[in-house]
């Protein structure tokens, strides 16, 4: 169990480092492109595309971290009025729903990766295979499923409900 | 299939599942089991929903706002607002409103505004003998303005869900609407404070005003950079957001010196995660919008509305009532994602200006942020004030009434929010 | 003024659509006596494109729809999604590849990241400057062969649809020669070839989604763009640009293409029906384009933007400067070299080697 817990912690840290790095790179690329445009009359043709793809990577990696932090937006004000046992059962049900959805997303995401790999579609500016970008969808889904399962185990073991789906406003 | 889709989504929403899961799972189940459509297309639609450069303003604005909060910019704006209006009747309450608006012009987020302003102003309000309920109501409602005043994450999402809407245009109209709400609220505070003879602060000396202005100067430049950059034809909203982030970082690190590396790392992580939190919703919304288009539902609603709702006046009345009701239970982005694709085609057929409609929607949803029983600004204000919801209601009711008046002005006098747009074009 | 022109055009567009409708109605009445319906199996065709009512593309697509429905006596229907309702251009191509859209009409430039050979259509100064000669080359065997390369992406190429010659529009710099692009950033469609085109002339290029072009021009994110007259005029691009340059450097050519698996699985009668409808549609689109183009041009000339047509000599200089790029683009692909040589030959025979 400790091994698992430490493993989860390391994974969690890596994910955080990756998304922090991605948002910094995106900002630097955006800023440099504006400087290039006004300072040197020289746009890159690929900045906008790269920024979009970096943010899409952040989204699908961040999706799992949002489960971890319990900040996915849901309509759950009524949770507070439920008895503890019911609430816990409901939260486990919700976790199961999430896993089913992420299963679909990951499975068909993987199909999309294979499909675009097979049909050789490239991105217009960076001219890389678009499957590199699509790949984050199954990866992110798998990471999220992993986090949800670990959280559910923790919830069952600890005997108390976690704030898995705390209602959260826009940031 | 559309019927099944809606039944599934509603059931999932009621289980309190995350909204993106409810939308996504409902869509996958109905497509996989009820249609010949390749489910791969749903993944492609989610990707497509995110693959828009205009939408990238969202993570950059979140990033900028987090840097500003961590870098001591918000405190300085508050001190400046107090030196400016603190001595007038209702001065402290006005300070709360004005600094919320200014903070709203820095950040795209409403709860962040409530926390940043509330932590300092709530005790101050109590000290000036405003009731806890009044003070909490003011904070919760004033914070909602940052949804309307650009930059606004909610407006960016609206612009990405309804692709024909330009984020720049929405931002421009948001300035007008935000000013109207601000003015109506300030008028009310003035009247209330005069009537109850609330204590005032002594007037700030010229020197104090100068000192606070100088201290806040760099922070106050941010709205100038963002709005000036967009309307001066220098940046896109997305670029303006990125520039604001870099600028705020430079100020925090080199001028105010309140940003450590450790801090900065946390800000990066938090900004990325918060962005993901909103962007997964946008992605899921795209699936729903697409399935609805395929099913022809927006067209059916449009036909129904044009046949049954004859006047634009009535359309807006129905819309306002419906959105205020939704706002009691849902938060802004979720409501936009579900409602906007359904009503925009109808409104277009009725000849309604889409930007005006967008702004009316946003004002409704901003009000929803603090209407009980569910409103994130209420919850955030609770953590500051230690009041429970019932204790907050009298104060919330006052400001709800005031902002509904502003809503009516914005709804029925389109020029009130759109005048800047007319001016720019 | 401008506003009047716009209203006039919209009315024209509607009239055209109505004319098509009227014809359809008449034919319908005639067809009711036939037993045409029995020849075709029930089928609903999902058809997507990007253009609004009033555009040649829309008129052509409607003509396709009317023809299919009346010829089949209503057995075959078209579920039409204009105006990019089915997603961005790239997404529509991909959805057709996946099979969610049956038929789509997309610019060749947007298709080229899917099927590289198709980029030949967008090589600068390739096509004859006479529009009828251009159509002739496209309808020739060499043109058909290039269209056939869509197979490799899982598409059945049904035909080339017209969008007219593209014009440059710019801010701050009137264009007379390739080096005038130095220091300018031009918006292009999402196509590596179009990016290379400007880079080979010494400029910069940035792909911006169609829906964001107006704002990008207004905000100075890009200095210019290229599009046919109707796109410039109907989107008001000329209002946020200083110069409109008639350059004849390239054409907006749409590929009408179907998902290959879907098309191959249709019975022969239906396949022929679709092929015939394609001919009817492309004819309607070509006619409408010819009718409206002069009017769009006049309206733009009357606007505040400076209108300039490159002289013969200037075009020759551009043509000269673009030859290396033609070779660079096909470098390393024998197949593409062959396709290009085929086009060169055909162009020479059609234009009489001018
Ligand atoms: Na704001
Ligand atoms: Na509410």
From TrEMBL, chain A:
<feature type="transmembrane region" description="Helical">
    <location>
        <begin position="89"/>
        <end position="110"/>
    </location>
</feature>
<dbReference type="InterPro" id="IPR055348">
    <property type="entry name" value="DctQ"/>
</dbReference>
<keyword id="KW-1133">Transmembrane helix</keyword>
<keyword id="KW-0472">Membrane</keyword>
<dbReference type="GO" id="GO:0022857">
    <property type="term" value="F:transmembrane transporter activity"/>
</dbReference>
<comment type="similarity">
    <text>Belongs to the TRAP transporter small permease family.</text>
</comment>
<feature type="transmembrane region" description="Helical">
    <location>
        <begin position="17"/>
        <end position="38"/>
    </location>
</feature>
<keyword id="KW-1003">Cell membrane</keyword>
<feature type="domain" description="Tripartite ATP-independent periplasmic transporters DctQ component">
    <location>
        <begin position="27"/>
        <end position="156"/>
    </location>
</feature>
<dbReference type="GO" id="GO:0015740">
    <property type="term" value="P:C4-dicarboxylate transport"/>
</dbReference>
<keyword id="KW-0813">Transport</keyword>
<dbReference type="GO" id="GO:0005886">
    <property type="term" value="C:plasma membrane"/>
</dbReference>
<dbReference type="Pfam" id="PF04290">
    <property type="entry name" value="DctQ"/>
</dbReference>
<keyword id="KW-0812">Transmembrane</keyword>
<keyword id="KW-0997">Cell inner membrane</keyword>
<feature type="transmembrane region" description="Helical">
    <location>
        <begin position="130"/>
        <end position="153"/>
    </location>
</feature>
<feature type="transmembrane region" description="Helical">
    <location>
        <begin position="50"/>
        <end position="68"/>
    </location>
</feature>
<dbReference type="InterPro" id="IPR007387">
    <property type="entry name" value="TRAP_DctQ"/>
</dbReference>
<protein>
    <submittedName>
        <fullName>C4-dicarboxylate transporter, DctQ subunit</fullName>
    </submittedName>
</protein>
UniProtKB/TrEMBL annotation, chain B:
<feature type="transmembrane region" description="Helical">
    <location>
        <begin position="355"/>
        <end position="380"/>
    </location>
</feature>
<feature type="transmembrane region" description="Helical">
    <location>
        <begin position="312"/>
        <end position="343"/>
    </location>
</feature>
<feature type="transmembrane region" description="Helical">
    <location>
        <begin position="170"/>
        <end position="191"/>
    </location>
</feature>
<keyword id="KW-1003">Cell membrane</keyword>
<feature type="transmembrane region" description="Helical">
    <location>
        <begin position="216"/>
        <end position="234"/>
    </location>
</feature>
<keyword id="KW-0472">Membrane</keyword>
<dbReference type="InterPro" id="IPR010656">
    <property type="entry name" value="DctM"/>
</dbReference>
<dbReference type="InterPro" id="IPR004681">
    <property type="entry name" value="TRAP_DctM"/>
</dbReference>
<feature type="transmembrane region" description="Helical">
    <location>
        <begin position="400"/>
        <end position="424"/>
    </location>
</feature>
<dbReference type="GO" id="GO:0005886">
    <property type="term" value="C:plasma membrane"/>
</dbReference>
<keyword id="KW-1133">Transmembrane helix</keyword>
<feature type="transmembrane region" description="Helical">
    <location>
        <begin position="101"/>
        <end position="122"/>
    </location>
</feature>
<feature type="domain" description="TRAP C4-dicarboxylate transport system permease DctM subunit">
    <location>
        <begin position="6"/>
        <end position="415"/>
    </location>
</feature>
<feature type="transmembrane region" description="Helical">
    <location>
        <begin position="46"/>
        <end position="65"/>
    </location>
</feature>
<protein>
    <submittedName>
        <fullName>C4-dicarboxylate transporter, DctM subunit</fullName>
    </submittedName>
</protein>
<dbReference type="GO" id="GO:0022857">
    <property type="term" value="F:transmembrane transporter activity"/>
</dbReference>
<dbReference type="Pfam" id="PF06808">
    <property type="entry name" value="DctM"/>
</dbReference>
<keyword id="KW-0997">Cell inner membrane</keyword>
<feature type="transmembrane region" description="Helical">
    <location>
        <begin position="240"/>
        <end position="256"/>
    </location>
</feature>
<feature type="transmembrane region" description="Helical">
    <location>
        <begin position="134"/>
        <end position="158"/>
    </location>
</feature>
<keyword id="KW-0812">Transmembrane</keyword>
<feature type="transmembrane region" description="Helical">
    <location>
        <begin position="268"/>
        <end position="292"/>
    </location>
</feature>
């Amino acid at each position: 169990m400790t091994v698992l817990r430490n493993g989860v912690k390391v994974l969690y840290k890596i994910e955080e480092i990756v998304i922090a790095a991605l948002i910094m790179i995106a900002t630097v690329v955006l800023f440099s492109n504006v400087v290039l445009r006004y300072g040197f009359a020289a746009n890159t043709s690929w900045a906008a595309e790269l920024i979009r793809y970096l943010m899409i990577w952040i989204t699908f990696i961040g999706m799992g971290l949002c489960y971890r932090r319990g900040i996915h937006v849901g309509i759950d004000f009524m949770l507070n009025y439920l008895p503890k046992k019911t609430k816990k059962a409901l939260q486990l049900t919700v976790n199961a729903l999430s896993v089913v959805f992420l299963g679909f997303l990951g499975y068909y995401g993987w199909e999309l990766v294979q499909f675009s790999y097979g049909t050789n579609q490239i991105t217009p500016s960076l001219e890389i295979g678009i499957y590199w970008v699509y790949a984050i969808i199954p990866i992110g889904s798998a990471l999220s499923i992993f986090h949800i399962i670990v959280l559910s185990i923790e919830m069952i073991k600890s005997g108390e409900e976690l704030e898995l789906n705390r209602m959260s406003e826009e940031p | 299939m559309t019927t099944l889709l809606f039944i599934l989504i509603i059931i999932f929403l009621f289980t309190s599942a995350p909204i993106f899961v409810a939308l996504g799972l409902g869509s996958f189940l109905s497509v996989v089991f009820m249609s010949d459509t390749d489910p791969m297309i749903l993944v492609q639609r989610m990707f497509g929903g995110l693959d828009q450069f205009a939408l990238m303003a969202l993570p950059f604005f979140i990033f900028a706002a987090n840097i500003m909060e961590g870098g001591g910019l918000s405190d300085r704006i508050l001190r400046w607002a107090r030196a400016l209006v603190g001595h007038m009747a209702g001065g402290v309450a006005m300070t709360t409103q004005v600094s919320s608006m200014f903070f709203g012009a820095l950040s795209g987020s409403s709860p962040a505004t409530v926390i940043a302003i509330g932590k300092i102003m709530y005790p101050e309000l109590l000290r000036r003998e405003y009731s806890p309920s009044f003070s909490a109501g003011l904070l919760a409602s004033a914070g909602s303005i940052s949804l309307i005043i650009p930059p606004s994450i909610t407006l960016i999402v609206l612009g990405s869900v309804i692709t024909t809407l330009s984020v720049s245009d929405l931002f421009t109209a948001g300035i007008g609407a935000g000013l109207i709400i601000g003015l109506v609220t300030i008028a009310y505070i003035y009247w209330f404070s005069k009537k109850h003879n609330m204590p005032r602060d002594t007037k700030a000396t010229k020197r104090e005003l100068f000192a606070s202005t100088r201290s806040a100067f760099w922070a106050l430049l941010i709205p100038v950079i963002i709005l000036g950059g967009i309307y001066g034809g220098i940046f896109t909203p997305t670029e303006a957001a990125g520039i604001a982030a870099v600028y705020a970082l430079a100020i925090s690190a080199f001028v105010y010196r309140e940003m450590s590396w450790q801090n900065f790392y946390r800000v990066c992580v938090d900004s990325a995660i918060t962005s993901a939190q909103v962007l997964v919703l946008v992605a899921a919304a795209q699936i729903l919008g697409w399935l609805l288009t395929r099913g022809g539902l927006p067209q059916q609603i449009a036909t129904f509305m044009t046949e049954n709702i004859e006047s634009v006046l009535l359309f807006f009345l129905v819309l306002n009532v419906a959105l205020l009701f939704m706002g009691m239970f849902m938060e802004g982005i979720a409501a936009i994602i579900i409602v906007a694709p359904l009503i925009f085609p109808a409104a277009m057929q009725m000849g309604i200006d889409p930007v005006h409609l967008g702004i009316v929607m946003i004002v409704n949803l901003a009000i929803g942020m603090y209407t009980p029983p569910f409103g994130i600004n209420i919850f955030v204000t609770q953590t500051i004030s230690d009041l429970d919801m019932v204790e907050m209601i009298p104060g919330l009711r006052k400001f709800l009434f005031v902002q509904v008046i502003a809503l009516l002005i914005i709804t029925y006098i389109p020029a009130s929010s759109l005048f800047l747009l007319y001016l720019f074009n | 003024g401008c506003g009047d022109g716009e209203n006039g055009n919209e009315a024209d567009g509607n009239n055209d659509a109505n004319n098509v409708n009227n014809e359809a109605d008449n034919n319908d009445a005639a067809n009711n006596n036939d037993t045409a319906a029995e020849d075709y199996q029930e089928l609903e065709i999902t058809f997507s494109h990007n253009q609004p009512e009033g555009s040649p593309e829309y008129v052509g697509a409607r003509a396709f729809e009317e023809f299919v429905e009346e010829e089949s006596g209503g057995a075959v229907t078209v579920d039409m999604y204009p105006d990019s309702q089915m997603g961005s251009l790239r997404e529509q191509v991909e959805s057709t590849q996946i099979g969610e859209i049956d038929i789509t009409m997309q610019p060749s430039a947007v298709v080229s990241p899917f099927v590289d050979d198709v980029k030949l259509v967008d090589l600068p100064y390739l096509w004859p400057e006479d529009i009828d000669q251009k159509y002739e080359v496209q309808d020739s065997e060499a043109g058909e062969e290039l269209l056939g390369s869509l197979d490799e992406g899982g598409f059945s190429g049904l035909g080339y649809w017209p969008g007219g010659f593209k014009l440059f529009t710019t801010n701050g710099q009137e264009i007379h020669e390739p080096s005038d692009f130095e220091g300018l950033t031009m918006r292009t469609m999402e196509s590596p070839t179009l990016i290379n085109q400007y880079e080979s002339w010494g400029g910069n290029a940035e792909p911006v989604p169609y829906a964001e072009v107006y704002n990008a021009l207004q905000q100075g994110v890009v200095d210019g763009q290229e599009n046919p007259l109707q796109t410039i005029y109907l989107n008001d691009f000329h209002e946020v640009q200083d110069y409109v340059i008639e350059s004849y450097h390239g054409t907006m050519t749409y590929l009408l293409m179907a998902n290959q698996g879907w098309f191959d699985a249709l019975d022969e009668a239906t396949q022929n029906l679709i092929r015939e409808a394609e001919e009817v549609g492309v004819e309607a689109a070509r006619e409408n384009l010819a009718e409206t183009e002069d009017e769009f041009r006049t309206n733009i000339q009357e606007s505040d933007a400076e209108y300039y047509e490159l002289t013969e000599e200037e075009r020759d200089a551009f043509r000269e400067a673009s030859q290396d790029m033609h070779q660079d683009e096909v470098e390393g692909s024998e197949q593409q070299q062959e396709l290009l040589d085929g086009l060169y030959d055909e162009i020479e025979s059609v234009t009489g080697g001018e």
